[in-house]
# Entry
Amino acid sequence: MHVIRKIDELRRYRNAAKGKVALVPTLGYLHQGHASLIRSAKKECDIVIVSIFVNPLQFGPKEDLDKYPRDLKRDKKLCEKEGADCIFCPDESEMYPQGSSLTTINVGQITNHLCALSRPHHFNGVATVVTKLFNIVSPHYAYFGQKDLQQSVVVKRMVADLNIPTIIRVCPIVREKDGLAMSSRNVYLSSKERKIAPILYKSLQLASKMFKEGERDPATITHAVTRKISQEVTAKIGRIEYVEIVDVKSLESVHTVRNGNAIALAIFIGRTRLIDNIIF
Ligand code: AMP
# Structure
C-alpha cells in the first residue's frame, strides 16, 4: 500500500492507475464505518485511495480541531487490512499553502438547514476540501456515509451543480452492538456518557415504529422522539440541538412524513456532539 503526502506524487500515482479509481475521503482515526466504505469501493473499483486529512476549514473556531483524534499508524493498518491501495495524507501546508486566498465553494440553500444552524461554515469547508480532493484525485467514484446525511446531500448537490464527473455512493450507517453510530468522536465520551449515547438510535427506532404504525405528522413523531431523549439526556447531562424530519434532497422540513424522508438529530452528551439519522 502506498502512503503519499504530496499532491504531485499523488497525481503521478493516479495517472498511472489502470481501471476505475475510487476515493474515500476521511478525517482519519478510522473505524468500521470507514472500513465499510473502503469495502464498497473495493467491490466496485480497481484502485482505492483513502484520503486522511483533518480539514481545518470545516471546523468552527470553538470546535475540536486541535483535539480531533489522530493515529496514522493505526489508520494504515486498517486500510491495509481492507485492501486499500493508497493513503493520501497531506499536511495542512500542502492543502492550504501560504499565498492561497482560500477560495471556497458555497453550496447555497441546502447548507442552511440542520447542522448548518450551529455550524455555519462547516459545509462550505467540506465542499471546498472535497472539490480539492476531487481535482487532485479525479476519482471515477467517491464513497460517503449516510451517517453524515447532510454532508452526502451537499456533496451530491455540488457534484450535480458543478458537473463534476465523479459518481457519489452513499453507504449505510455502521453501528456498535448497542446501536450507537460509529464515529471517531465517540472516544470523547466518558463511560457514563457512553452508556447514555445509544438513546439516539433508540429514539430513531421509536420514530420508525410510529411511522410503520401509520403516523404521518412530523410534529407528533419529533415530539415523541424529543421526549424519549429528554428522559435520559437531562439538562445536567446534555442537550438536544435538533430533531427534524426532512426531504432528503432539499433538506427542508416536511409537512407530511413519507417513505424516503429522513429523521435526523444532533444531541450533545456532555461536550460531545453526536449526530444520527434514519430514512423512513
Ligand atoms: P469522517 O472521517 O468522520 O469525516 O468520515 C469519513 C466518511 O466516513 C464520511 O463519509 C462519513 O459519513 C463516513 N462514516 C463515518 N462514520 C460512519 C459510520 N458509522 N457508518 C458509515 N459511514 C460512516
In short: Residues 26-27, 33-34, 36-37, 144-145, 147-148, 171, 173-174, 181-184 surround adenosine monophosphate (CB under 6 Å).
